[in-house]
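> @MW can you paste both from yesterday?
MW: sure, first one:
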Amino acid sequence: MKKDQVNIGILGTGIYIPDNYMTAKDIADKTNGIWTEEAIVEKLGIIKKPIPGENDGTQQMGVYASLEAIKNTDTNPLSIDLIISVGEEWKEYPLTTTAIYIQEEIGASNAWAFDLQQRCSTTVSAMKVAKDMMIADESVNTVLIAGGYRNGDLIDYTDPAMSMMFNLGAGGGAILLKKGMTKNLLHETHIITDGSLARDAGVFYGGTTNPITKDNLDLAYKSLKIFNVEHMKNRLNDVSLKNWFTCIDKAFKKSGMDKSKIDYLGILHFKRSMHHQILQSLGLSDKNTIYLENYGHLGQIDQILSLHLGLQEKKIKEGSVISMISAGIGYAWAANVISWG
């Protein structure tokens, strides 16, 4: 089966957002005066962000979103061949496989399942992996990509170096892909990773290097940290925008399309100035995207959420050309191309 003979399309999406929110004022208060409410809104671009409730575990939010996607697309769970979890590793129980849990909870007993992880760039990469697997394997026709995210639990708001992650929120997302579609087509993807940043950020306590002990217990659960502040800052300043634009350029080139045709950018949440810089560089405006200022950053769920909201708000129309772009600590950058309708 030749690659150019197979179309992979998006059936639809599902989103789960917790009922509880943290406002810009709440965030400012937690910084003990380091940040003002106004600066949280204007500079960091956060009006409010969802935070998890009692039953909003990472895996469970992936289930909630999957059930929404199934309902929204009128999909029989028994028709799903493969489930790829993009949910985060901060979850209910370490060393449990989220995709297999989702499989059981949604009744997809004919599927097989695995977890995939690239931090906040996972969804775009998972869509590429799913497409390539569907092309390569005749038995894989319908794929569910789903997961949850609540890494905001791990943030110490009194650490000034962590302001770039004050936007971390909570939620779940799911997207269904199907082989042989003639609409909502997923075209090509380009991904860049940079291993020089592999150990610049992460959770400091809880692994084999720094196990949680009675002495560090109070620190451990707020220990998502930037380990090497200067290196990470300088390296990202040098390569981040360049890598994003390279990913966009190459994704469009691989797709045989012109990036000037972008109608909608499914972009992750980050500070307001960078958001506008990217839009301006691509010749786009606010009408071509949704700034997630009422959600913050839901990690790898952002691109699914942006697509979902773009359709709801009719910014994505029949014939729209979409590019999802993402980045994840480690560091990874990715972009894809989708033609809607």
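MW: second:
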Amino acid sequence: MTFAEYEAEVKQHLTDQRFYHSQCVAECAAELARRYGADVEQSRLAGILHDIMKDTPPQEQLKIIEKYGIMLTEAERRNVKLWHAVSGAAYVEHVLGVRDRKIIDAIACHTGGKSGMGLLDKVLFVADYISADRDYPGVEELRALAESSLEEVMIEGIAFTIPERMEARLTLEPRSIEAYNEALWELESRRERR
């Protein structure tokens, strides 16, 4: 399929607002890819596809997850907001026929992160935080950070999300904590090399 064909498929699954968000993430991911040396078209495709299941009812998402034998961690099972990433990755692989493992993996971890994130994973994770349609307090600061470091944005984004979840007494995703720690270690390592 061409990018336009994937984009048309995504449009069928999402509200107009969510589709616009996906378009913005695709363009932001392409821009970040150019800046950091990732594959631009791969990043753009991951961006347009990343939320394909976001507007699908949770029980339908769970059916896809179970159909393809994906085992959720207990934290994932208890956090319905993470399901669209996992079910979306399964959908693009098994239904749309995407074979690029990096794209599939980036979609699967775009919401919470994970240990061992590669460049495309980070590009998509950050693009989802700072895309042009985002207008939450502090987004401009994150966009400025993204000009020099993907890891800085990841740290700030996760550092904002975890206390919010704790205050609401919601489950913490261990993979987010792993992603946070590894991004922090990457920055520390860079500073030591200077």
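> thanks! The mean pLDDT is 96.
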